[in-house]
């Protein structure tokens, strides 16, 4: 029976975890943020926001540009211009202008970035494992059970100050750096009092369909589970007392004190305690709602002491109707056949909430202490009904009607405090420190699936049905908790020479993390067929079949069983000690040279737990030491910037980094991707991938605010990690393996240009265009072995697109009343996962996204914004052997928002 480990197992696993000196952490709320250019922490303005470097620079001449977005774009561009590394910056006004509602959607506008599953960012065509994420410079844990990285759709745009994407490494960033590092920076303490609020509504073309729901689902405005759906305590109590829940377990656990009929009755009483009012029904789709409120101010405590505070709250509720199509193929390239086919209709009812409280204390010009608190919660209640046909039933009237109810709560709470200090008496040396404590959780208290055997008419609609008792209804109760703590400091000392300013910087960073993941699967085993007396009961709805009377009277011949087939539970811990030193030299504001080296001592243990609470060895295949990783290494980085003219500069960067496997990828447990539904298996034999990176970029910044850039990059990857379908498994069941080698290279181009050069003094002065294009390629070598037989032993990396394009046409009226933006985004096809046994790889097809945003400003305090998303009505599609194997229609979305700011 799957439950939490026994006391004995806990003692053993805790003993192993103690080797890492890692303990579970209880987190409160919040996070912090790096300095902004608009708020220097000392008499000398510093450039710190994207890289963590703090390099004194001469005061920058402010470029005044007409138009809301161009002013914001210029500020972000100026920050990018002063970075030591290749980086891209996106400000809050730019995010607002494109109308993107969260960090994930906004980041796909950045050069070389693509969005996967609406949550995860691919940098330069590399999967999410090759990017890292921080919030205000602090590493935070992920509430997603299948990935290390944080789902970026959890961060609403309303709390974001800016987004920084650093594409070349530096010594002060984690060495686990592949494609890039994304830093989400929340709103800063304001310079003056402000108050802002907004309310809005949403409509989607799919709203013409009914919403799928069930009793107790989708009606609570908070989206939270009220406790009724969770696994009953009586089940845990029975396991603890008798060793299991089956009648045989109860009889043997009672040493014969309970006979078999009494044990059967006890087993049925456990089923009575489970939430069964879950028959799927439909209702009219309600329009979506969203709202934000924020307030902040500064207070003069004394002549040289200022206190600031900012609080914000965001809320979104909507029902997202969808249709999906899924196909599994078998055979090879010469003879391909459909093994399984599903047509699915469903609704994902989501509620997202975020709260933020930021405090700051400035003491004179040289000292600043800040705290940042952030709470994010995202609930999803996905209800679907599908018609499934197998190779034996395709073209026949009989099929399966599959019901699925998947409810989950994702939360992230974080707390951070940081300080910035300039020491005048010590040559204006700078000392920075931070501490962050965070906790994430994914709670899925009741995921239910059940199936009916149905007869279809010519319109493919069921005309008769009976519960499929061969595939028992299954309940899944799962919980994941991920706690982390990190702290660090750095000290920078400037040295002035005749024609150069050098800053030597040393620092230390510590990160530790613990994770616990548990899942329990239970099944309703029914001993009744439609031809039996009372068999007509099986044609009823789910809640009627499993009513109290039918269970109490034993009409169904019901037995509650453990439905677990594989080890799914695991606990894990990791810690990383890192130290770094760097030198940053500015030669008379013409040449800037940066060199640094980072040392990391990384340790991790991931322990799979059996249903009995013991450490699994997967049938004796693995020893305990296979679950532990201990590695250390040196990671150098270098960059050179040449300011050719006042408007033109060149950058060169080189570095060595590493990509480590995720926690679940190295534990031999089965897990399911919540987006695609694919089954994955971990592999303790995975090794980390060393990466060698080269970057070159040319940048141009005009005095009028226009800018261009052209860059090239190359990455050599040793033993890249790839998901590959196993020979012995049917369907989409994949495992992670190290390929032998791989590389990725490409070029990037970006521009922002006003149109007044076409006709000076005309209306075209109110327009400008912006865009970017990335072209590239990649290749990996995969060798067959006893478990895998890849069709293509040389192919592109999973998730890599050969091209990505963004184009934006924007308008700002000269009277400041109107603003509009048309945005187009598209990526080239990319491999979702590799084919096997002669079947080609599965490709995700290009998605042509066209969005439009219009804003009207009747007063300086009020705004009305209209946004249309996916105007082309595109669908997400996967193909294999020129056959569509997956498709999902997100519809076209319209939102209307009213805002007021004081």
UniProtKB/TrEMBL annotation:
Residues 82-172 form the TonB-dependent receptor plug domain. SUPFAM superfamilies: Porins. Residues 1-32 form the signal peptide. Pfam families: Plug, TonB_dep_Rec_b-barrel. It comes from the Bacteria. Residues 451-856 form the TonB-dependent receptor-like beta-barrel domain. It is found in: Cell outer membrane. One of its GO terms (cellular component) is cell outer membrane. Keywords: Cell outer membrane, Membrane, Receptor, Signal, TonB box. InterPro entries: Beta-barrel_TonB, Beta-barrel_TonB_sf, Plug_dom, Plug_dom_sf. The keyword Cell inner membrane does not apply. Belongs to the TonB-dependent receptor family. This is TonB-dependent receptor. The lineage of its organism: Bacteria, Pseudomonadati, Pseudomonadota, Gammaproteobacteria, Alteromonadales.
